[in-house]
Each structure stands twice: as structure tokens, then as C-alpha cells.
Amino acid sequence: MKVSPYLQFNGECLEAIAFYEEAFGAKAEIYKKDNGFIDHAELDFGDGWLGLSDTPRDEEKSSFGNGGISISVSLADVNEVKTVFEKLSVDGKVFEQPEATEWCDCFCTLEDKFGVNWSLMCGEKE
């Protein structure tokens, strides 16, 4: 299991990526742009990474807000993602159900009953 921080922005993710690349001398890999917004990017720090994205515009879909933070957890397989998802989502708010994406075999996001935002994934693609 690998745990990584994840920052959300309200349409300013690309600007934040450039800022952090300059500040840390790191390089970001941007996986997808959608209408000018960043769906997912990773800033490589060598031994770890910082995830970044623009928050979905749909108010029902996200509570992260500008500069919001979530915890990203890379798990062993789809079954483990679904098991952890089911446990964390009890009395919480689901943003994205577990499903395959362009960058991994299974991905989902939710807010647990304590207000902590989680991104769960497995099978990251290179």
C-alpha cells in the first residue's frame, strides 16, 4: 500500500503545477486535460509524488474546494479498492464509484464520515 497527498484546485491546477515545478525543481506528468482543466497530474519527487487536479465544477460531485487536500491510496487490486471503498463510504459522501480509468485499473473518490477526502486506486498504468 502506498499513501500520497493530493491537492485540488478550482481551475488553477496548471498554474499551481508550474509554480511547484519551479519551487521544487520537480517535473509533473499531466495525464489528461478536459476543456482546459486538469483531471489528474503527478509531480514527481523521486521517492514519492504529489497528486494534483482541478476540482469538478459540479457542486454535488466535490467538496474539496480551492487548495483542498485528499489522501490518495494505491492498493493491491480491484477487490481491495472496492473493499476499502465500501468501508470508508459508510455514512460518507461518494464522489466517484470504483471504475477503470485511463491511468489505472480502478479509481474512486469519497469523503468519509469524518470529512476526510480519499482517492483509492490500483493498477496504475505507465
Q: Report the biggest beta sheet as strand number plus sense, adding barrel if it closes.
A: 8 strands, mixed
Biggest sheet: strand arrangement: 2-3-4-1-5-8-7-6
Strand content: over 45%
Distance between the termini: 18 Å
Order of helices and strands: EHEEEEHEEE
Helix content: 10-25%
**Rg calculated over all Cα atoms:** 14 Å
Q: Give the beta-strand count.
A: 8
Mean pLDDT equals 84
Quickly count the domains. Answer: 1
Assembly state (oligomeric):
single chain
Report the CATH C-level class. Alpha Beta
CATH-assigned fold name: 2,3-Dihydroxybiphenyl 1,2-Dioxygenase, domain 1
CATH architecture: Roll
Can you tell me the CATH superfamily?
2,3-Dihydroxybiphenyl 1,2-Dioxygenase, domain 1
* Low-pLDDT segments, ≥5 res: none
Number of helices: 2
- What coarse outline follows from CA principal-axis ratios? globular
Structural class of the secondary elements?
alpha+beta
